[in-house]
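Second attempt. The first submission of ZNFX1 domain-containing protein had a stray character pasted in from the spreadsheet, which I only caught after the job came back as garbage. Lesson logged: always re-copy from the clean sequence file. Corrected sequence (486 aa) follows.
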Amino acid sequence: MAFKRSFHTTSKNLKNNDTNNLKLVDLLKHFEQERNGCEQLVEQSKLVDRFFFDSDMNNLSILVQFFKFLLHSIHRSRQTVAKLVIRLPGSKLLDFSYAHLKPHSLIDENQKDLLEKFVLVLSQILQFLLELHPQCWEQIDSLGLFDRLDKWSTKISDEDVQLEVSKLISRKDELLKEHTSKIKKPKSEIEIKTEPDDQPPDDFHQLSIYPTLDEIFQQQTPYLRKNITTGQYKNGTHYLDIHFRLLREDFLWPLREAICQYMSEDNRDISFRNSNVRLYRNTILTGSICSQAGILFSLLIDVSMLPRSISWSNSRRLIYGNLLAATFDDFDSSCFLLTVEDRSNIDKNGTINVRCQKALCDYQLMKIPPGTRFTLLETTSYFEAYRPILQALQNIKDDQIPLEKYLLQCDTNVPIPQYFEKKSDIDFRPILVKTSGEYNEFNGTLSDIKDLSTWPNAQQLGLDQSQYTALQLALTKSVALIQGIV
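This time the job returned cleanly.
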């Protein structure tokens, strides 16, 4: 009866948002009884603060009960539990936990059973935290929690507890190894050491158009061969491979160089400048969207940090297809490659929708709780202009390359267009200057495309000499490369 009265009193006070006088242990019992108890807790921010910072939580029994509550709620609402667990770093709970993990010899015999349960649930909670927020391992390590748990596991005979602690320590060691490998700064300069005739290490048809993280952080040196400016290509594959890799590196290098600059300690402050990228700080992940185009992610851009003069209706910022590199820890352990899918609401509420462009990226990004703050680097080169060309280079068969005779075999003997071979008469009257004195000279007269002496001159056509030469080239050659001059 006492429990029922307490439960109803707690429920009534929760409905009235009057929780200041309620004990945390009673509140916890209430949430445990509710099917959506975790969701109810998350909705009350002041109450959440009490669970993470109140000195009443410095109680071994309540800590065990609270961590059990979170673990049991994961299968019902993983995303909601993530919102709570992600708050552990910086809260008092980790400090309280460390204090309770005293050396085994100093523990009261009556508490050892409870401490074994605590070691189990704490290890499981920290594993979940590292899954959500891998880079916080350093903060946990600095508190000494990993060492304390590891020492405790050697004193416990329960194999389940030993296994969970072992899994946690193994994950920490993996993150430490990754962190150590990332200490080396990525190189921003690429030197092409291979010659055009060298054999490629892999089939360019199988390469992803989007770069890998190893390529971005320069742990994998890109294979590049010089373009052939004198001489011939061996075959179609030789030509396509060289141009695909060079074009891909053309858009990848500026992004790599910008990340390299950003990762240097002197450039993480507000003064960071790089002409190859646009920087967006304090961007918030607000959630995921299931659309006809697939899984999209909504990002809230902090427009207050952008120039006020931006006109989004005309701006090239964050337009469809632009490539973004997103990180929540200054690229220490996270880097997501995204492309902009929709920015139609950016001038209304500051949100854009983006799409992941790497394998497993969707899954990894969905594990990050909404509210996480990101830094974005947007390449100024329009990635959507590169993408279809790179795809086309991969899709072209090596024996069906357009203009193969000229591009591969370097044949300089360019014939007249086929449509002029049988009949080469042409009427220039539509482009003659009507006011010229020679207009009547060509009125009713056809010129021979093959005989330049029968053509009107540049003045009669209203052209300068370079334009006249370009017109002759365009009409008399089956292939012509003409560049305009501003």
